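Each field is set out underneath.
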Amino acid sequence: MSAAYPVMMDVRRLRVLVVGGGAVATRKVAGLVEAGGRPEVVAPEVTDDLRRMIADAGLVWQPRPYRTGDASSFRLVFAATDRPDVNQWIADDGRAGGALVSRADEGGESDFHVPSHLRRDDVVFALSTGGASPLLARRVRERLEATLATPGLGRAARRLADVRDEVQARWAGDEGRRRAFWFDLITPEFLDLAVAGRDEDVEQAIRRCLSQS
């Protein structure tokens, strides 16, 4: 397999279809909803967890088998049934309509795949081994979760989103000043404070850099 091109998609802007109602489809829908997406689901039956997600998020569910043309108006299509022939049918149909397709049963036949990932508010860690070893990706994810991907890091990122607006307004026409501010603020020491969940110290560092600038 050639090296994959990493990309982050804003699924809030895309029409997404998930075909299937089992455990794999449930995981796909959960990840999409977590990222703000509103995937549509086509499946005669769905798991209890998926049924609850559909109800809680107000998703569209067509409780029936896949039909030709269902995938034609979507941009992302997940073929997640337990039948390879049906998944191939879905993939061909989706690509004919211009969609990118992910097949749950044939990773090599997919246009994209969803890497192992961790989400901490606005911070997302995505890991892939190109299909060579999903378990290795899982172990790396577990290591990151224990040492770096903490809730405190997510909170810091959310706070920095507000600071970005303040910095942009203060130095709207001076990119150099804005750049200097960020390099002064986001140091290895700042990262340590964020990972440790020391929110008050993170805030003090932000206010100090703003006042000095």
Q: What stands out?
A: The first strand starts at residue 16 and ends at 19. Residues 151-212 form one domain. The chain has three domains: 11-114, 115-147, 151-212.
